[in-house]
Amino acid sequence: MATAATILGSGGFVPTGTRETSCVLLLPEDSDRVVIVDAGTGLRRIVTDPDLLQGRRRIDILLSHFHIDHVCGVPYLTEVSYDELTVHGPGAALYDTPTAELLRRVFAPPIMPIGPEAIGLQLAEIAPGEIEVGGLDVRIRRQDRHTNPTLGFRFGDELVWCTDTEADPGTVDFARGARVLAHEAWGPPAAPGHAEPAAVGRMATEAGVAAVVLIHVPPKADEADLQARAAAEHGNVTVATDGLLLHQL
Q: Could you tell me where the DSSP H helices lie in the chain?
């Protein structure tokens, strides 16, 4: 599936000293491309540690939705060297508004001195279904159990990435048979539009996934409690940390 899959941002909404907000980096095998899911503050890591890109200069970023903790890293791309960079967003599919328009609301004067096109960033639309991005086969699912609709992503049978959604029976079918389910866990009690860790563990067991990774971790989380609640429902649970190598789980 990929030579590497590294979490760059494992936290939810509020970055901390150890966790940036949502971002995961995938390096497709035998490709010169990089695929990134979400552009939270974790995206700054490809600025401060450019070796993460392994010299690749063609980048695709998939956005699950447009909440600020998932897109606030877009301006950081002004500090990244690349030959081609495309941000794929679900603006039209989820909100009947083009992705370009939604991003310009925060990535344009007077909030930012320049807009996305000024740095050579290309914008594209994505929607639920199956696509190929950066050499990876990606299944995309609409998630309607958040405060606004979001997207979940499945990369072959290796990784399912579901953030910003409550527990959803549809996720079980979406993740069935995958090796790793990375799913947000917030609570208890869960905040509106978010999932409790025990529910994540149950979904993972029903889906038959080999490993569960809890992502979008709350800034004040009791990590031992998150782990214990999910582990009561599934035998292989990891609370995500920045830098976690998903392909080595």
A: 45-48, 68-71, 91-95, 99-104, 169-175, 197-207, 223-231
Give the structural domain span for 38.
Answer: 2-245
| 8 Å CB contact between 31 and 133 | no
With a CB cutoff of 8 Å and minimum separation 6, the contacts of 144 are 168
Whether the per-residue pLDDT at 95 is higher than 60: the answer is: yes
| Mean pLDDT (whole number) for 204-232 | 96
- In what helix (H) or strand (E) does residue 20 lie, and over which residues does it extend? none
Q: What interhelical angle do 223-231 and 197-207 show, nearest 10?
A: 40
Q: Which of 119-128, 145-154, 198-207 has the lowest mean pLDDT?
A: 119-128
- Cα dihedral sign for 93, 87, 211, 67? negative
Cα 120 to the chain's mean position, in Å?
A: 23
188-189-193-196 Cα dihedral, nearest 10 degrees: 20
Taking alpha carbons only, the member of 190, 193, 200 closest to residue 169 is 200
CATH number at residue 226: 3.60.15.10
CA angle, 165 as apex, 161 and 168 as ends, to 5°?
Answer: 90
The pLDDT of residue 36: 98
How many other CB atoms are found less than 10 A from the CB of residue 118?
A: 12
Q: What's the total number of domains in the chain?
A: 1
How long a stretch of residues is the chain? 249
